[in-house]
Specification:
By secondary structure, this protein is mainly alpha-helical. The chain has six helices and two strands; from the N terminus they run ααααββαα.
C-alpha cells in the first residue's frame, strides 16, 4: 500500500516531502505534490486520489495534516469531495494547474530574465533572437 501511494503521487519516483523543513509546512508540501501529480497527468480528471489515511500512513504523518493539504486543492477547485467516497480530481483541473504554472513562469522567470538582460546591456532584439535560437536548437547549449 505504501509503495502504491508513493508511486501514484510521484509518477514512480520518490516523493520529496521534507518533514524537517520548517519553511514549508507539510500540508503545503502535500498539496504541491498532489497539484504536480494532477498537472503531469499522474492523476487524471475524475480519478480518485489516495485517501488521507493512505497518505498519512505512507508518510507517518497526521491525517489532519494531509486533509489540510487536500482542502487547499478543494478550495482551488482541483479536487472535489464526494461524501462517503473520497476525493476526486475535478474536470478541468489539469488545465488549471498548467495555466497556473504558465502564469508563475511568466511572472517570475521571464521577469528575471528580462531584468538580468537589461543589467548585462542585452538588447530586446538580442534577447528575442537568443530565445528563438534556443527554440530552434531544442534548448541545447554549446557552452
Amino acid at each position: 500500500l505504501v509503495t502504491t501511494v508513493i508511486n501514484q503521487l510521484s509518477g514512480g519516483d520518490a516523493v520529496h516531502l521534507n518533514l524537517n523543513d520548517p519553511t514549508i509546512p507539510i500540508y503545503q508540501q502535500i498539496a504541491q505534490q498532489l497539484r504536480t501529480a494532477i498537472g503531469d497527468g499522474t492523476f487524471v480528471e475524475g480519478q480518485q486520489i489516495p485517501s488521507t489515511t493512505e497518505i498519512s500512513q505512507a508518510y507517518q504523518i497526521n491525517p489532519a495534516t494531509v486533509l489540510k493539504g487536500m482542502n487547499l486543492l478543494v478550495e482551488n477547485n482541483l479536487l472535489e469531495k464526494r461524501r462517503g467516497l473520497g476525493m476526486f480530481v475535478q474536470v478541468g483541473a489539469q488545465q488549471k494547474v498548467l495555466q497556473a504554472q504558465k502564469q508563475e513562469f511568466l511572472n517570475h522567470e521571464v521577469t528575471q530574465i528580462v531584468q538580468e538582460a537589461r543589467q548585462l546591456n542585452i538588447s530586446q532584439a538580442e534577447l528575442i533572437q537568443l530565445i528563438k535560437d534556443q527554440y530552434k536548437d531544442g534548448g541545447s547549449s554549446d557552452d
